[in-house]
Amino acid sequence: MLDLLMAAGLALAAPASAAESTVTFRTADGCLIEAVFLAPAKGSYILVNTHGLGSNRGEWGPLQAAAAERKHGYLSLDLRGHGGSKSCGGKPADYRKFNRADWAAASRDIEAAALWLKKKGYAPGRLVFCGASIGANLSLKAAAEGTVKPAGVILLSPGLDYAGVQSLPYPRTKMLIAAAPTDQYAWRSSLRLLEAAKEKKLLPDFLDGGVGHGADMFRKPGFIKALLDWIPGR
Questions:
Q1: Stretch (H or E) spanning 3
Q2: 232 CB neighbour count, 10 Å cutoff
């Protein structure tokens, strides 16, 4: 519910870019995914943004606006069963009816997004997977299991386990982990994930999100700037 409320409020705070378009693509298991896309300037990055449980792509509004100012692009998707992504295999999809297997399969939405970008000619080394809450776990899973390997991942309030989607098995790439100390489960999970990444010599970075969960941390002054400052050179 918090993710859903944040999506509505943050979307109002950041109008869509005139160059933004709505796109669709299909996953390997037949889900039709709806997303918004903004092409990057030459040499810039594309953020592949995945929202939290019960939310939608609207929660990325503030980050999208800031990324566009730096000439980065973005592909912000509605996970299966959310927003405009309500069909899987020709049948209605509703996240409220998902079981653990359904949630595990949702990482294919991010894999499909990355493949769509690859087909458009964008190099994997210019992609950064960015996820909030369960979207963080799914982004990490997609980066590990998918054929398109991003330059790095940004994890906002990851958990050791959200709806059966774990994080510890999947650190394989450079990452920025962000959590707020007031969000105790995500904070403890993030510190454990940070340790696990260091054990694998991945040199992860950590950012204190101040207060809130997932995209709610965008409200902290300087937080979005710090996220985007992490990207160049990765």
A1: helix 2-13
A2: 10
CB atoms within 10 A of CB 66: 16
Long-range contacts of the stretch 116-120 (C-beta < 8 A, 24+): 116/23, 116/25, 116/75, 117/46, 117/48, 117/75, 117/148, 118/148
Which domains are present in the chain? 2-15+24-230 (3.40.50.1820)
Summarised one tens digit per residue, pLDDT across range 22-55 is 999 999 999 999 999 999 999 999 999 999 999 9
Sequence-ordered list of residues with C-beta below 8 angstroms from that of 152, at least 6 positions apart, any chain = 128, 129, 173, 174, 175, 176, 231, 234
Predicted confidence (pLDDT) per residue in 96-133, tens digit: 999 999 999 999 999 999 999 999 999 999 999 999 99
The packing angle between helices 223-230 and 61-69, to 10°, is 60
Of the CA atoms within 13 Å of residue 192, those in its CB half-sphere come to: 16
Confidence (pTM):
0.91
Q: How far apart are CA 46 and CA 39, in angstroms?
A: 8
